[in-house]
Amino acid sequence: MTFIKVSRQISSVARVGIATIPKRLGASAVVIVGIAGVVGVLVGLLAIGEGFEKTLTQTGNDRNLIVLQLGARSEAASALGRETPAIISQAPQLARDADDRAMISAELLVGASLRKKTTGRESNVALRGIGERAWGLRPQVKLVAGRTFQSGLHELVVGREVQRQFAGTELGATMMLQGQAWTVVGIFDSGDAHNSELWADTEVLGPAFRRANGKSSLLVRLNDSQAFSAFKVQLSTDPRLRVDVMTSRQYYSRQSERLARMIRAFGVTIASIMALGAIFGALNTMYSAVATRAREIATLRAIGFRSVPVIVSVLLETMVLAALGGMMGAGIAWLLFDGFSASTMGSGGQIMFAFDVSPELLRNGLLAALSIGFVGGLLPAVRAARMPIATALREL
């Protein structure tokens, strides 16, 4: 019965307090807008990391492996020996095509300077030389216009994001790279980080960039996913090789971790500073609300209302304002940032991606808003409950 009585008291006091919010519209708006700003900034900044990480992690999978120079953290920093592809292609763990050729693509990653359509400034873009079996190793990559390049020719296929953002990359265009003319013969869409790349024949790209004998990485596929350990042991124990191997999912996850972590730390720091201001705004608003309702609260306590219902009711009032601000901020962040295109530097060049305002981010934004409301309302709630009844009844 005590629980039911307390619940009824909380409901009664909370209804009265929430009903008076429109009468304090200016002060209430300060809390709502302040919390909306915190949530909007937090969700917007974290959406950068989410989008970047999502783009990279969906580029890899557990079926393909990437072989890099031992100790290299990325393809751009890796240089494999000239004979490395031939040695590794003999490994019995590798899958083979219908012609009994190992499913392996020797690849070279370099940078190409292109002019952005929006600013006219030069920016670095990843230019990847691929082997003839690269398309079979990446079935998600589809030509959406034109054709693939012919082996031995200075021809390029361009990722859809590169074609969209950079001048001189349309189908049939000719661009100068390392003093040589290259023709765009196709546009592809991969739905991942490869959309930020140009592709060419690795045997043509290498000499053009003075990397004729070296490759950055090998992309391979095993005949059995359980053969990874045996394949890794074979490579590590071969005295002719100094390489490391990992799944492509592991590789791209590692590439995204550092930047995503930095963005999250920056977002949380900025949002925390703003949250302090929102908390002070909530404190000021709720202290004013308690002061204007002092006689009302004292009267309720005088006729038998306990302190707990008073505390909870004030907190609920603040949490309602916080929830409104949180929903406003989350909604604005979703409208403005979800799917917004951006780019950042990755291994070899820019990586173009879209902000991702995920349901998890929206949920975390609302939780942050409610936390601010709780902290901002706690002290005024305690003050309201501890105010001497006689003193409060004498207040105007």
TrEMBL record:
Keyword DNA-binding among record annotations: no
Residue span, MacB-like periplasmic core domain: 28-234
Tree of life domain: Bacteria
Compartment list: Cell membrane
Keywords of this entry: Cell membrane, Membrane, Transmembrane, Transmembrane helix
Record domain ABC3 transporter permease C-terminal: where: 269-389
Transmembrane segments: 25-48, 263-283, 303-325, 361-382
Entry keyword annotation includes Endoplasmic reticulum: no
Broad class of the protein's primary localization: membrane
Membrane topology according to the record: Multi-pass membrane protein
PANTHER family membership: ABC TRANSPORTER PERMEASE (PTHR30572:SF15), MEMBRANE COMPONENT OF TRANSPORTER-RELATED (PTHR30572)
Protein name as annotated: ABC transporter permease
